[in-house]
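Quick note —
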Amino acid sequence: MMKLSELTPPIVIAHRGFKMKYPENTMASFEAAIGAGVKMIELDVTLSRDRRIIVIHDDTLDRTTNGTGRASDYSLSELKALDAGSWFDPSFKDERLPALEEVIDAFGNQVTLNIEIKESAHEPSGPPDAIEKQVIDLVLEKKLLDSVLFSSFDQRILARIRELSSQAHLSFLTEIPPYEGILGILRKISAFSWNPDYRTLLYSHIQKIHYAGFRVIPFTINDKTIVKKFLEAGIHGFFTDDPILQS
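Predicted structure written out below.
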């Protein structure tokens, strides 16, 4: 088992696996990223109609499968019957949408995992089987809490996970330029890191967040020159579609 505490910077995080050369969020993509030597893979999760945890980035199926409509309108078995590879290349026609448990069972003891919970999956009513509860329970069941980074653009999701576990590692994702409230959110949830869109990030932001004691891990950088610039500025790691970018 690889623990987050054992990772040394820069942490190269494979964004949806080896997204540049494999269909994103599939077992083939994750396996290829691990084969490329990364220590962390990132994946996205939401709930199926029967409230099972499925790995997919979009709320809808149209872009990355041969299905149509919202993923939440289909059962897990229906989702797993879809072709999740041919859209990328015909040679990947046998790839399927994996359940989160499949990914954890296959790779949880090989690398650290960054599980992003989609904003649309949050339920303010907080049902007993809410996605936050299911995800944290699954990670605890597999005894991988030290090896998982939970992230979201929705601070309510992160706050809920923090309520469920004082030891969970949390990352707050942002796409908008930094605002004064970010530091307060990081402190409130005792975050592991702030994960901003690199295009919104300035040197002063990195220094401010570092001074407050948090890591800065921007997404999604696919250019060596830009990586070098930000590493020199002090980022702790970065997300990339190309896990061999640093090799």
